[in-house]
Amino acid sequence: MELRTNRRRFLQTAGTGLTLSIAGCSAPAPSSGQAATDEQGDGSATVTIALEIDQETLQEKQNSLTEQLQNGSLNQTEARQQLYAAERELLGEAAATLEDRIASDERISVAESAEEMGVLLVTGSADALIRTLGYPEVRGLFPETTYEDALAQLEGSE
User: Fold this and answer.
1) In the chain, what are the domain boundaries?
2) Distance from C-alpha of 136 to C-alpha of 10, rounded to nearest angstrom
3) Which domain of life is it from (predicted)?
4) Which terminus of the chain is more solvent-facing, meaning fewer CB atoms within 10 Å of its CB: N or C?
5) Would you state the pLDDT for residue 15?
6) Burial state string for 134-144 with b = 16 or more CB within 10 A and e = fewer than 16
7) Which residue has the higher pLDDT, 80 or 40?
8) Which residues are within 8 A (CB) of 121 and not within 5 positions of it... i.e. 6 or more apart?
9) Quick check: 98 and 120 in contact, CB under 8 A?
10) 3-class state of residue 101 by DSSP
11) How far is it, in rounded angstroms, from Cα 153 to Cα 10?
């Protein structure tokens, strides 16, 4: 049962844009209102963190739902709703775990959270931000505007 969520499509699109930017393709130079680093003049930056959910737990839930679909105890709509609920729960757990980690480091903080889209807006020193890439609940770091794009997509889907 392959279900694609808005969050997945959003992260795929954001990842493609980030890859092109890293490669030097169509990456605009920061304007006066769009500084990528050192926004506060203190060496800190604001970025979007994309959350990674526990894939093993999600796979177990997906397998269980597939089995229930096959034996007739669930229909396709019910299975899809339960899978979305499981994804939301796993995103909430990933966000809570990451926020706990960040709370213990004074060099980084969560400015905003849109866990239903799997993104957090964080501000911190470059080394603290890069260190988050080693956490299992972090899929990647993206430009600050990626958070705004996620919110716009969320509002558009409601």
Assistant:
1) 37-157
2) 20
3) Archaea
4) C
5) 55
6) ebebbbbbbbb
7) 80
8) 46, 47, 48, 49, 110, 111, 112, 113, 144, 147
9) yes
10) helix
11) 8
